[in-house]
Amino acid sequence: MTHPGDPFAAVRAATLRHRENHGCSAWPYANGPLLAALAAAVEARRILELGCALGYTALSFAHGAPKAEIDTVERDPEHIKLARANFAAAGAAQRITVHQGEFTQVVPTLRGPYDVAFFDGGTPLPALHERLRALLRPRGLLITANLNHGGSADEVLRALLNPKQWLTAFVDAERETGISIKL
User: Fold this and answer.
1) SS (H, E, C) 48-92
2) Is the pLDDT of residue 4 over 80?
């Protein structure tokens, strides 16, 4: 899916080509302009992203929130190398820090508060989402992709629908992506 006016469509397309050639699971999120608009709407200053791949979504966040510092987590060294090159080419390298490692190892070392957190790294995990909640500021924005993957994603979905903790809406009828405000 391409979106008119997506300044990073070439990075998204390169990620899709890379996935085919590399045989990895680097699926770029389908709607970078939405992420940019959400970051702009909350005037984000700090953003945490889980699942960097080649940097498409980090660049989208940087575009929407030009004053934000972005922490992104990625385990694959090849992806990190390519993402850093994309950040440099876009003039955003100074604002985006890539943390290499598994989410469950890296996220506990990070300190909040974050204005926005984005999970797009495979099937959502309950313990990881609880940590993301702790890292978000009150009324912070959590964007969770892959909520329709079943298994642990079902548990995360149930938690995001808890009206005492989250105000949640979905981007699509399939409930693939949730947008949640921390209450």
Assistant:
1) EEECCCCCHHHHHHHHHCCCCEEEEEECCHHHHHHHHHHHHHCCC
2) no
